[in-house]
Every structure is written in structure tokens, then in C-alpha cells.
Amino acid sequence: MQAENYNKRTLMDYSPDIKVLDCTMRDGGLVNNFAFSDDFVRDLYEANIKAGVDYMEFGYKASKELFDPNGFGKWKFCDEKDIRAVVGDNKSSLKISVMADVGRCDYKKDILPKKDSVVDLVRVATYIHQIPAAIEMIEHLKKKGYEVTVNIMAVSKVNSDDLDAALQLLAKSSVDVIYLVDSFGSFYPEQITKLSQKYVETADALGKIVGIHAHNNQQLAFANTIEACRMGICLLDATVNGMGRGAGNCFLEALLSFLKNPKYNEIPIIRFVEKHMLKIKEEGVVWGYDIPYLLTGILNSHPSSAIKFLKDKRTDYTNLMQELMDMD
Amino acid sequence: MQAENYNKRTLMDYSPDIKVLDCTMRDGGLVNNFAFSDDFVRDLYEANIKAGVDYMEFGYKASKELFDPNGFGKWKFCDEKDIRAVVGDNKSSLKISVMADVGRCDYKKDILPKKDSVVDLVRVATYIHQIPAAIEMIEHLKKKGYEVTVNIMAVSKVNSDDLDAALQLLAKSSVDVIYLVDSFGSFYPEQITKLSQKYVETADALGKIVGIHAHNNQQLAFANTIEACRMGICLLDATVNGMGRGAGNCFLEALLSFLKNPKYNEIPIIRFVEKHMLKIKEEGVVWGYDIPYLLTGILNSHPSSAIKFLKDKRTDYTNLMQELMDMD
């Protein structure tokens, strides 16, 4: 469907296929260790409903065997009771999402059958070498009754043959959505054009759709997201004020104002920024475009070195650049 | 030449036609009232030479009849002696540029014959209704011996017929470069694709080239600049750390690292950021992407309302949005 439609759309128009997923609490949780106030979470839920956002991701389903619950905010684990404390039975049109990392989630035990959960969507995050394990998770979660996506991380480090093989395997699985993920914010729009085409063609042939998750290292998260959208990708990730690890993500407020579907309204999100985001920034929570992230983006590296560099209050950017090149 | 070449380039490759213009002091001067320290200017000049930048713009040639020299830093006026105090006779490969606004520059008197000046390039900034006056300036400056560009401002407010007519007139003038200028940062890359095509086709037919000057209201300045570059625009404006009015401009350090021409090197620019930009930011000089600028970008408005909003330390974004809609 999407492959037929995408080149007919104009900027005045909209495609009803396009959906938006807010992952502020999940990617943003990596910035503040998932320590969101209950007020923040409740207001974000309400804002997303008013804004017409399609999915809201509450956090991770991380293994409590691997991660000590005392060391993180509750949204690293997303217990059913914690989500229900915010959404009740979720009688709204906003669907609820959680992310589960391959190898870091006790999904058989911790993810309930869909009939007992308010969660609608589980997103399986995987590295390329974990694809068989990801597929096992996907089939398990589909049988439990969920919508399921697979998010192949760090594809900017993956060679084309491996990626093609992974996409073929995933396209034959029961997964609903395959995600193009620019973990290191290293892709330029021209590369997104080609990758989107590859993902959409493979997925479309087997009736699946494609999503995009972009990072803002080179200040291209929004540009790459709308380029992907132009190429037929129709599940778009964004976060309020771009909150997310390192350089952060595509800004939800910019994305909603770009999409012309009248069901979307950026004003509730902007109001949420006024009330909550300015405050947590003042309290010292830091994310967003900065030279160290530009450098890891350019050099296609994990943002962790840049995060540490900034935490150490260093400003010797050119030394960081040399360190990054030595690591490669 | 460019129209033939542009679709052959890959991201591994580079086009030798592409040139970069640093307008940190000119667009950034609008942020700090042109109050750059002599150290800043000298170091920027040296950094641009080392980085392989093609042009450095020192500021405006503003009329001293209209603007009181005591009210601004010297780079609003760019007296020959002030430029020479930095560059001497400029024996480097870096060319010197100044900007002259139509109707706000006593160009007959204040711009010397080229043989008496170290300035290489004069950029004529014009609104669409001033095109005949701009052409008079262009012809005068060409006769004086300069390279000349024309920068048609605020084209996002101009209707297509008027723009076509203006481009035709300018293509027939003696101007060397016609600039696509996104003054309000309101264009999406898809619009830049089409506009670039229009500008390049018109200019190319008469042996002229096209430049781009983007603003970062929607965090698209870099994306729009490289999209224009892909479409055959080959004079690219950028500023160090994106310093420029309101949301600022395309980041020079990101642009240089994108361009694969080995003559470019972003390290001297990054080193300049370490030494000077962090300091002036700490001193309270403010620019860059922020919600008020996103709103003026979305609504295709002059950034002045957003600048005032931030200066007044307001954060009631949704009221600003209503005010902007009432102004239209």
C-alpha cells in the first residue's frame, strides 16, 4: 500500500498510513535513568492523546535478574501495575508501547499475555548478530497477542549483505513492523533515501510496514525522518523536545507540525514543553546536539564517548576526535 | 557545468565546483551587534584559511547616514582600514566578502574600486520589490571590479510568478551568483529540491551559479544546504557553531565534514569553537534552535517576534503561536 502511495503525496496533502510513536520516556529515560515524576508521565500521556499521537512508549521491559530495580527508575521495567496507575484500562485511542532488548529481557516471564495487559505494542530491539534470537522473541510475542516491531540497531556499522539477509529473515517472520534505526546519527538524508527504499521494498512484498528511529548527532534527525516518510516509511519515532540519549531524537513538536493529517496537533506537546521540559532542563538533565555528538556521528561511533566527555566537563574537542579515530 | 555534474556525484566523491562561504561575522553580528573582539576576528580569519574555506564575510557595508557608528560594532560598516588591520593585503587563498543591503548602503561612496580594496566579493541583499535597485547596484559593483552575488531574501513569502520574473531579470544582469535564501527557516528539504532546480536552471542557462543561505528554525539548515548541494547549488553559506540571527544557520563544522573535498578540514573550525564560541556563549550571547524559532519557521514569519519573546524571558509558547497567527 505505502509503496504505491508515497510518491503521490504533496506537502499540502497527507498520507493516512503515517503514524507517530512518542518514545520520550524510553529514549529520554536513558538520559535521566528513567527518573520521571508521576506528574510528568501522566501529563505526557494526556498530551499525547490530545496531540493525536498514535503510540506512546513507556520504557523498557528490562530483566530484573540483570538490572537491579533499586538502581533505576521504574520505567526501565514497565511493570503492568505501574503503567495501569497512569492509564487505567487505557480507554483512549493512544496505544501503549514498551521496548524489549534481545538478551536483556525475561520476556517469557515478564511479558503477560496481551489479554491481561494494557500494552499494545512490544518493540524488539536487536543487534544484527542476534536476529535468530529476535525472531524467537517476535514469534513468542505475536502468539501472546501483541503488535510487534523489530528494531535493528546500529545498521550504520552493518555490511549490506548481512543487512539484506536479516531483512529477508525478518520479512518472513510474523513481525508487523521493521525499523530502520540510525543509532549513531551518522546517516545523511541521501543514505536514508536508499536505505528506506531497501527496507520498504523488502517489507512491502510480505505485507509489513517500516518504521524509522533517528538520532540528532548531525542535526539531521528531523530531516532524516521526513525523508524516510517521503520514501514510504510510515511509523515515525519522535520525542518531546528531542529528549533522548546523547544528541537526542527527532523533535515531536516539529514532526507533528510537518504532518498535515488534521488528527495531529502540536499545541498540547508545546504546552507540555512549557510545563515539564524547561523544568527538567533547569534541574540539570542534559541532551541535544553538541560538538562531541557531531563528532561521534561523523565518525559513526557509539555516543558513549561523547556522553562521558561532556560529563567530565571537557571541551578539548580535537582531542576527542583523535581518541575516536584511535578506537576504530 | 553544475547542472551536468550534480547527479553524477556520490557521497564518497566530491564536486570541485562546490565552494563554502563563512558568514559568522555577518549573520552572527546580528546577534551580538557586531561586537566581536579583535582576537576573535583574527583567529577566525586564520581558522578559515586553515580549514580551506573559500570566502569569509566580515560584515555589512551599512550606511553611516542611516546607522550611527557609535551604536554598533565596526563590522556593521566594514571600513577598508578595519579589514586590512586583520588581513593586511590578504595574501591567502581565502577571499573576503561583505554584504550590502539595497537601500541601506551608500555603495557609490562607501565601496571603493576593487583595485583599492582587499574585498573580493560584494553580496547584494534585496527584497523582491527592490530588484531594479539591486540590479543597478550589481552593475555598479561589477564595473568597480568585484565578484557580485544577489541574495533575494524572504522568498518563502514571494509568489512563484514574481520569483520567476525576478530570476529572469537577474540572470540577464552581470551578477555572478544568485542566492536561494530561506530567511525564515521555513522550507522543508522537498521544497528546497524544487526551488534549487528552478534557480539552477535559470542561472545555468546564462552561465551563472547559485548559492544557498539557510536558517535553522526547524533544525533543517544543514539538511537543506546539503540537499541544495545535491541539486547543483554550489556556493554554500555556513557559520561557526551555526551562529546567526535567531535560530542561526548551517553549522560550518558539520558542512565541512560532509564535503569530501580534501582541501576542507573541519578541525581548525572545531578548535576555534573551543577557544572562542564557548566563551561568547558563556558571556550570554544567545542563538540557536529553540521552540519560539520553530514556531516562526512553521508559520513562515520573521524571527523578530521570537527574538523579542526570548529576550523578555517568556516561555508561554502557545500564546506566542496565537500572536503569530494574528499577525498574518
**Would you identify the regions of chain A where 5 or more consecutive residues have pLDDT less than 50?**
1-5
- Domain count of chain A: 2
**How much helicity do the residues of chain A have?**
40-55%
The strand order across the widest sheet of chain A is 1-2-3-4-5-6-7-8
- Determine the mean pLDDT of chain A: 95
The CATH level-2 architecture of the largest domain in chain A is identified as: Alpha-Beta Barrel
Relevant CATH superfamily of the largest domain in chain A:
Aldolase class I
The largest contact between protein chains, plus residue counts on each side, is: A-B, 38 and 38 residues
State the separation between the terminal residues of chain A, measured CA to CA.
41 Å
Radius of gyration of chain A: 19 Å
**What is the global morphology of chain A?**
globular
Largest sheet of chain A: 8 strands, parallel, barrel
Topology, number of strands of chain A: 8
* Secondary-structure element pattern of chain A, one letter each: HEHHHEHEHEHEHEHEHEHHHHH
Please name the CATH topology of the largest domain in chain A.
TIM Barrel
